[in-house]
């Protein structure tokens, strides 16, 4: 089975390398690129911490991000936490299962969070006592499917990894636009919300047991083994 990642760079190359370390050959066909957005946040004195749902918040946050050094980071998962540390931030909490679940774990205390988000983001419902101000710091810009990927998908026996709902929606739209038979493609999604965004009609569609990159690769290996 031909395993494919459509993540933007450098995440796509990281997925290929992580797969290789687990004996899983993955081909990279990025279907989007990440571009920074100009932004201006509130006075750092009015912020108790940073809420981040993607490593892109730190990789593309620009000079404005430096104003918030010294503020603890609440990261959606290990990859985002790693990017925060590399950008010089201390990580206070690392979640598993999405930003909403992370917020729901917060103690009942007054807390003012600055959310660093992309243009495509999930709405959140902060618990009592927690206020969240959001700044858009980056955007995922979709691109058309390259001919080589079209050829690979049309040949069948392909497994595509989906790391975000936006990517899932774009991939589905591109397959439909180009008339690619979805029944010959298997999908492995990072979570149920992402799987829902992919829609129906695929040969196989499964979600990882937990929203972590390692869990998604484990699912991909399992799906490949069952296909052999």
Give an overview of the whole structure.
The protein is α/β, with parallel strands linked by helices and 228 residues long. The protein folds into two domains: 2-31 and 144-227, Rossmann fold (3-Layer(aba) Sandwich); 34-141, Rossmann fold, CATH 3.40.50. The protein is 32% helix and 25% strand. Helix 6 (165-178) packs parallel to helix 7 (192-198). The chain is elongated, with a radius of gyration of 18 Å. Residues 15-217 form the Tetrapyrrole biosynthesis uroporphyrinogen III synthase domain. One of its GO terms (biological process) is tetrapyrrole biosynthetic process. InterPro entries: 4pyrrol_syn_uPrphyn_synt_sf, 4pyrrol_synth_uPrphyn_synth. This is Uroporphyrinogen-III synthase.
What are the SSEs and their pairings?
Layout lengths: L1 E4 L5 H11 L4 E3 L3 E5 L12 E4 L3 H4 L13 E3 L2 H9 L4 E4 L4 H6 L6 E8 L11 E13 L4 H8 L3 E5 L2 H14 L6 E5 L2 H7 L5 E4 L5 H15 L1
Parallel strand pairs: 1-2, 1-9, 4-5, 4-7, 5-6, 7-8, 9-10, 10-11
Antiparallel strand pairs: 3-8
Helix pairs in contact: 6-7
């Amino acid at each position: 089975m031909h395993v494919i990642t459509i993540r933007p760079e450098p995440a796509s190359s990281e997925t290929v390398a992580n797969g290789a370390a687990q004996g899983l050959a993955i081909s990279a066909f990025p279907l989007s690129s990440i571009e920074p957005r100009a932004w201006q946040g509130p006075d750092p004195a009015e912020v108790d911490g940073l809420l981040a749902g993607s490593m892109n918040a730190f990789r593309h946050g620009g000079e404005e991000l430096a104003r918030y050094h010294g503020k603890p980071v609440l990261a959606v998962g290990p990859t985002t936490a790693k990017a925060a540390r590399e950008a010089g931030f201390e990580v206070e909490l690392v979640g598993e299962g999405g930003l909403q679940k992370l917020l729901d774990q917060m103690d009942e205390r007054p807390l003012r969070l600055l959310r660093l988000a992309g243009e495509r983001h999930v709405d959140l419902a902060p618990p009592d006592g927690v206020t969240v101000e959001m700044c858009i710091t980056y955007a995922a810009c979709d691109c058309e499917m390259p001919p080589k990927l079209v050829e690979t998908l049309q040949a069948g026996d392909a497994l595509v990894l989906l790391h975000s709902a936006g990517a899932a929606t774009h991939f589905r739209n591109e397959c439909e636009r180009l008339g690619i038979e979805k029944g010959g493609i298997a999908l492995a999604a990072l979570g149920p919300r992402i799987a829902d965004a992919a829609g129906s009609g695929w040969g196989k569609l499964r979600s990882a047991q937990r929203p972590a990159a390692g869990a998604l690769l484990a699912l991909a290996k399992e799906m490949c083994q069952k296909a052999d």
